[in-house]
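Hi there, hope your week has been kind to you so far. It would help a lot if you went through both lines with me. No rush at all, and the record is pasted right below:

***
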Amino acid sequence: MGAAAAPRAVALSTGRSVGAVYETLRRAGEAGLDWASVERMTDDALEGVLYRRPAVPGPSGTRPQPDCVYIHTERRKPGVTLELLHLEYLAASPTRRRANGSPSSSS
């Protein structure tokens, strides 16, 4: 069996795509994992090493959560759209950012 046969066999036996198996092997290589270290890890620890989220710059938890009751109440009014509510949200504070991460503009 060639080098590509093992990932294909894993993909077939687990029901995952070959690409997903190769991606997991790539992540394991970047993390410096070998079979001996993987066997000693719990599933949660392995998942944490392979799929941890990248660090987000800035303080965590500072983004305000939307007021869903307010949004749904306002949406029932004629002519109110999510875009209009979002523009009002941005206008309420110049430090708020658009969904794409760019600062809100006052134009």
Q: What stands out?
A: Helices lie at 5-14, 18-30, 35-40, 43-51, 68-75, 82-92.
